[in-house]
Amino acid sequence: MSNPVVEASPAAPAVTWQEGEALARKASARTRRKRLALLTAGWAAMFLIWQLAAYYLPFGVLPAPLEVGEVMWDIVVSGAFAENFFASVGKTFLGFVVATAVGAPIGYLMGRYDYWKAFFHDGVTVAGTIPALTYAVLSLIIFGISDLGPILSVALVSVPFVAINVAEGVRGVDQSLVRMSQAFGRSSRQIRREVFVPTLVPYVFAAIRMSFAVAWKVEALTEVFGGKNGVGFQIRSEYQLFNIDGVLAWMCLFIIFMLIVERLVLRKLENRVLAWRPEERVGK
């Protein structure tokens, strides 16, 4: 019995590098459009729910989005927005600086040496599980109504995130690179600068992203309880005047500002710093 003859299918046309690059760009553009559409739909749904709630709730309980938007505009035009947000940003930034100065060395020791890991591990873990409200109250008890309270609360909240992520980064360093560097006569300082630091940078950015939202919340909460300026102070002032429009306006400005910092500042900065990594270039 003769074997059936199978006709070979024509070979698929080869795709050039330029054509592949164009296809990848088109796929990336489609993905961005889908994300933008879903993002817009999500915000539209949220504002629709807010509008319906304001309409059906008793008068004065919940202002409509347009009313809050008018108050937000007045705050921005008056200059109060810039003054108070720069005050809050400054305290948050100083808290992050303190957290990095304390948490990074602790994380390096935890990741590099087992005995330091045993020494710091439980303390860092406990510090990370303490509620942010506790840090806010503790900072107010120590410093009272001052700018040091929010700075301390941000630092206390952020230190565990920084330490844990830096420790994971140190443990993730390729030891073969370390041994090769030692074989070529590199000093310990050069190994830390040229091997450990590039490996740790992504973990530091991960720590900043993880602690950013929590740090902003505890900073604003500390200002609500005992601040003399900043966003939290303004929210407390509007609350004392029973002005729900003002409370929601400052809260919405606070949310918008956090989104801008996280998505347009931190993310762009991270992409620029990590542009040398192949996965970062592909992700763009």
From TrEMBL:
The chain crosses the membrane at residues 36-57, 93-111, 123-145, 151-174, 195-216, 247-266. Pfam families: BPD_transp_1. This is NitT/TauT family transport system permease protein. The keyword Transport applies. InterPro entries: MetI-like, MetI-like_sf. Belongs to the binding-protein-dependent transport system permease family. GO terms for biological process: transmembrane transport. Keywords: Cell membrane, Membrane, Transmembrane, Transmembrane helix, Transport. Residues 85-266 form the ABC transmembrane type-1 domain. Its main location: membrane. It comes from Geodermatophilus africanus.
